[in-house]
Design a protein that fits this description.
- It is a single chain.
- This protein has about 140 residues and is an all-alpha fold.
- The longest helix is centred in the middle third of the chain and has 20 residues.
- The two termini are about 35 Å apart.
């Protein structure tokens, strides 16, 4: 693929890229653009796992074991690994289409967290903020 690569780290660079796109000749076949937010940070990775632990502790303290949250035939208390396997990962797979948390970028972490947090708040009144070490970047709505 022939073309320019742009790394945008500030407002000025973003404006220059937007101008370049405006000036780009569309041609017979159009042109291709790709946005990438970069892989999640090590701090964000720690925050994900901290969130799993906080959520597991809160669900257990409320008496919301796996039987109440997922399946009526099982009584098992939560831990961070179960939060990941039974709550985070299925939502991640459905929302992002990716099974591995190691392949998430920063925006995707936010997207998965928002879906899970909204579900738990609506259905069980469980509200756990994403850990403050490195909160997921929220997209403007």
């Amino acid at each position: 693929m022939k073309g320019d690569f742009w790394l945008v780290r500030n407002e000025h660079q973003r404006e220059r890229l937007i101008e370049a796109i405006r000036n780009q000749r569309i041609g017979d076949f159009g042109f291709q653009a790709q946005l990438s937010t970069g892989q999640r940070t090590p701090q964000q990775n720690k925050a994900i796992y901290k969130y799993f632990t906080l959520l597991a502790d809160d669900l257990n303290a409320r008496g919301l074991d796996m039987k109440k949250v997922l399946k009526e035939s099982v009584t098992i208390e939560w831990n961070k690994d179960m939060v990941k396997k039974y709550l985070w990962s299925p939502i991640q797979k459905a929302v992002i289409g990716e099974a591995s948390t190691t392949r998430l970028d920063r925006k995707q972490v936010s997207e998965v967290y928002e879906v899970l947090a909204n579900h738990l708040a609506t259905k069980f009144d469980v509200i756990i903020d994403f850990p403050h070490d490195d909160p997921p970047p929220m997209e403007p709505r």
